[in-house]
Structure formats: C-alpha cells, structure tokens
Amino acid sequence: MNLHIIKKKGIVLMFAIAAIVNFTSCQPEDSFTDNGLTPTSVDASFKVTPVEGKTNVYNIVAQPKGVLRSIWDTGSGFADGKMNFEISLPDAGTYTISHKAIGAGGATALATQNIIVATSDPVKGNILKGGRLTNSEDWSKWTVTNPASSASITFGSGSATLTATGWAGNGIYQAINVVAGKKYVIDMLTSSTTGGSNTWFEVYCGYAAPVTGTDYSEGGKLRALSTWDGCATAAFSGKISAVGCKAENNLGIFTATKTGTAYLVIRGGGEDMKAGIKIQDIEMRLSM
User: Fold this and answer.
1) CA distance 94 to 236
2) CA distance 75 to 73
3) Is the pLDDT of residue 100 over 50?
4) Contact (CB, 8 A) for 64 and 84
5) How many distinct structural domains can be found in the chain?
6) Which tens digit of pLDDT belongs to each residue from 31-80?
7) Span 177-200, mean pLDDT?
8) Residue 285 to residue 142: CA distance in whole angstroms
9) Residue 77 belongs to a domain with what CATH number?
10) Are 82 and 214 contained in the same domain?
C-alpha cells in the first residue's frame, strides 16, 4: 500500500515539474520587465521655481517616477536629499545645481541646471568681497598675512589652498564694515585630500589690523581645525562648521562691540600640512 502511494506521488511531481518548465519556456524575454531588480533608465530631471514672497529662495522639485534615491549638489558637494525642497541663494551670481538620481538595479542619471541670481539679498547677503574666490578679481580682495618660503597661499579657480612645512604659518585677511550690537556668522567650505601632521587652521575676527610676522589672535578662535584636537588628521571635506572640532573653538559668531572696520583673518600652518587645506565659499553674514 505504501509503495503504491509513493509511486502516485512521484507521477504527480513529474507532471508538476514538466508544467513549470513548459510555462517558463513559453514566456517572452521581457516578461520580468519592471520587476524592481532589472536595471532600467532613470530620469534625473528637476524643476526650479522662485518662491513667491521670499528673496532669492527657490523651490526645487525632482520628478519622482522610478527614482529610489536622490542625491544633490547645491554647492557643497553631493549629499542625500529630498525630492522637493527649498534653497536660499542670498548672494548674486550663477549657481550650478546637480541632481544624481538612482533607480532600480542601481541605474543612475545626472541632471544639472544653473540658477542665476541677479541681486544679492540686502539682509542675508555675504558682507565679504570675493568670498567665492572665483578669479583674480575675487583674489585681489584678500591680503596675504605672512608671505614665507615654507608656507604659501595658492589661489585657483574658486579656491585658495594653504600649505606649510617646518612649523611655518600663513593666511589671508580682509577688512570689513560691522555694526555695533550685530552678530555675524562665519563659515566656509574646507577640504584636504591627505590631512596633515601637527597642523592648525583658525579663523579670527577683531578690530586690530593684522601685522606681518605675527600670529593674529584678536577676538579668540571663531572656527578651528587642529590635529591636536582630532581634526584634519586624515582626508576631509565639508563646511568648517561641520568638520571643525572642539565646540568652544567652532562657534563661528562674531559679535560687533562697535561700529567700524574689523578684520576677518583666516590662518594656518604646521609641521607638515601635506597636500594642504583648500578653502572655498567664504561667507560672513548677519545672524538672523
């Protein structure tokens, strides 16, 4: 009896396998299209629209169909983002917005658009001149603090790179007009492909003019990177407000005690800064 049942089950199983093989062999090659695993093309396009009632604020909306992950570069490098968000561009200039869309199967696409801002926001605008370091016109707005053979500032398109060896130091500064009682927020994009050895990088703002051959320290550290405090020991990239360390040296706010001329000073140096620290998009704005 048991042998008879086993034989019947075996016959049924054989018929089932044959049916499955016949079914799959008859399916067209595209029968599994859009199964969520097969790589397909993905659309990274997006729209930019000025936000009514807001100065130099834009709404960015990406088309969502087929996009599983959205990565944006709005000026500080690529980072995960939303499909619909607002961006504030208080300073006059041309800005390139890039969107990297990732779809099923890891398919990617990249779309870019330029936003042209004709006039700076009179309240939120950058009070620094040449903060974007775009070209020689911007570079001319800055003065080198301590010219030296073993420490240098090299200007490039959109950046200034500080390098130093042998415990030398160098930096740049700019005179600015401030108003008593106002608070100003200072930030900039900083990066290094190597990090440094016994390296410091500091930002100050004070009323005394920098003197060549001396280390500026008016007003105390407002921003800082330091290998002794655990920063800049390896490659890094980001706003100094995010990648700087030791919170008490990275508040980034200058409070004007009197109306008049102040000096924003960016300086650094060390035993060996290796590839150096690159500075981009320096800004000083009224705190809202």
Assistant:
1) 26
2) 6
3) yes
4) no
5) 2
6) 434 444 455 689 999 999 999 999 999 999 999 999 999 999 998 789 99
7) 97
8) 17
9) 2.60.40.10
10) no
